[in-house]
Amino acid sequence: MKKMGLFGGTYDPIHQGHVSLALGLAEALSLDGVVLMPTFVPPHKIKESMAPAEHRLAMCRLVAAQHPVLQVSDLELAREGASFTVDTLEALCRTHPDTEWYLITGADMFTTLRTWHRFEDIARMAVLCTVPRAGTDTARLQAYAAALEAEGCRCYVHPCPVEDISSTEVRRRAAAGESLAGLVPPGVEEYIRRHGLYRDGAADTRTRDQQFIEIIRSRLGDYRFRHSLCVAQEARRLARLHGADPDKAYTAGILHDIMKDTDPNAQLQILEDFGILLDGLERQSPTLWHARSGEAFLRHILCIGDEDVLRAVRYHTTGRAGMTLLEQVLFVADFTSADRDYPDVDVMRRLADESLTAAIKYGIDYTIRDLLDRDRAVHPDTVAAYNEIVLSEANGGQANESK
Ligand SMILES: [Fe+2]
Ligand SMILES: [Fe+2]
Fold first, then answer.
1. pTM tops 0.70
2. What is the domain-level CATH number for residue 113?
3. Does residue 318 contact residue 288 with C-beta atoms inside 8 Å?
4. What is the extent of the structural domain holding 295?
């Protein structure tokens, strides 16, 4: 029978304390491996300074690559919803039937174990392990473990304390540009700097966009990835031409299709997790989901707070009445990006340079005809956008914002 540790945490970022704890227990208990399991962070707990899930995962992988006994699982992140430890353990027991699991928790968490969801099942499936912090709480942990053992749980409290490192302190130092030497494993400091993590919004736009590009690279297929970069460039060009914010346009372009290649069921799950209701028409039109799930992902998982960018992503497929300039730019750029090659693309590009409104009207016209040809319903926001333009033209074109 294999013996494996399960060590969950936010890993924001993974630090030397985590590594010492995992390696210490692996050796003491002769574990075959320890699975680092970065946890999904529910939206109400996401702090502004938090690193996106992809980066927390990447830093764990970076560290695991240096220690053969460490492995990384994205099981909980891939669920993209809050996970209970008991569910994770059940999933692991199912996929690894010949393994004995050792649940590793930090000292603070260990003494709350009894309150965990379906604690009895957790205790049945895993040996409960912890390590005291230097100079503090060994006796308290041992007493708690003894009480659990009296109830039939299997526990292990490591005799050697582990150095106490605070993730908050690591993030504070990173934000202040101070050295992280000795606090984080090799490579992690450089990773944090390279990706501008924990900079409390001070990260310059270029670093942030680079980070977003890496994120979409991991979420999109080749075709959609290239399309996203083309839309970003076109959106920036159109923004400059028509007086919108070019930086925001570029960012919105990179991110607009972030969920497009995500399994529809996973998209529905995200919408459900964040309490987003689809109307009847939207429910039956999976091609519309990526705009809504994309907005939710950007807002709650990547912690993007820029409402202009979020709105542009949300309405990039349907449009709507009263679109902001940035929404218009993204909507049109999605039609005129360099990768597009439908028959009328040249007409659309010429219109886009002359007037965003004219281009939107042309684009919606094309969309509506296409939907009608295929017996599909037209989203009311699309109809409203179209009507607004047509009515405004009838009134002398006041809504024509450009030129
Ligand atoms: Fe899209
Ligand atoms: Fe697109």
1. no
2. 3.40.50.620
3. yes
4. 205-394
